[in-house]
């Protein structure tokens, strides 16, 4: 059983769009903490507020879903780093919404309003809206009575430059808005998929070919052995990492650290000092926009950065951690994390890593499977 395959399209990220319009410096100066969202909510008993950080600057893989009866289509990011689903609504007054598909609940015979407001707070303002319920179609899977956010206001002018309309969160339900069961949990609870897992194949071969598969794994997308890693904390898809090394020498994550597998982040993000150390080793230097520039020719000489997880080494070669921009400039794919996650040694392994390694997110066994992507 290969599950339901949803094609993903690689699109230009906000960072690339802004870089080409010479607006990136303006953006990074205004919002040094990135377009992160801190979803403020309280766990029912503990009274603790969690703040998952999102960085929408580099999102690059979109899939198509539909909502309502008859269906209304949206381009979404399937994001393992958050739990909620939201799309722009016709009631949204922000300029960003004018440039995207907006959901019209009045045109859907299956829509049910909840009246519950939701606020996703970003570094640049709030995505505020309300919770509704409707039928969500993902490929041939029909998820009924799915809770999702309808945005009324989207932050900042930079959301105009996104190639996606909304987000479908695939993290653990502990991160979701109170009273909202996440999409994947509903697919499983409603008996729509045969296995309680999903998997991502992010192609490095151009725009097409990437997929997310729900409820089954197609082994033709990976080669060699599949290695399983237990989830260390069931909020994000978080695991324990042994070390990060170059040329056999540990350069970061000394004595172990935590890592999050995140399809909603493009880069390799880590604690400030560790990232600066790696930038120094690969001779990347800060540009006037705050991005790290690297000599394109070093792609042939720089060593792999090896992430050792559960005793297995996962090399990331220079060809993967150096990204080519326009005009012959190259950029480092390592970046410093911001916010509460980075007070401790937490790494985020985004698309740079996931393009190299086919990844299975196994909810049934709370584990992640990694194998070399084809």
Automatic annotation (TrEMBL):
**The organism's place on the tree of life at top rank:** Eukaryota
Q: Which PROSITE patterns match?
A: ASP_PROTEASE, PEPTIDASE_A1
InterPro entries xref list: Aspartic_peptidase_A1, Aspartic_peptidase_AS, Aspartic_peptidase_N, PEPTIDASE_A1, Peptidase_aspartic_dom_sf
Which locations, inside or outside the cell, does it occupy?
A: Secreted
SUPFAM superfamilies for this protein: Acid proteases
Catalytic residues?
79, 262
Recall the GO molecular function terms of this protein's record.
aspartic-type endopeptidase activity
Gene Ontology BP terms: proteolysis
Q: What keywords would UniProt list here? A: Aspartyl protease, Disulfide bond, Hydrolase, Protease, Secreted, Signal
Q: Which Pfam families match?
A: A1_Propeptide, Asp
Ranges for domain Peptidase A1 come to 61-371
Intrachain S-S bonds = 92-97, 253-257, 296-330
Family listed: Belongs to the peptidase A1 family.
Name of the protein: Peptidase A1 domain-containing protein
Species for this entry: Diceros bicornis minor (South-central black rhinoceros)
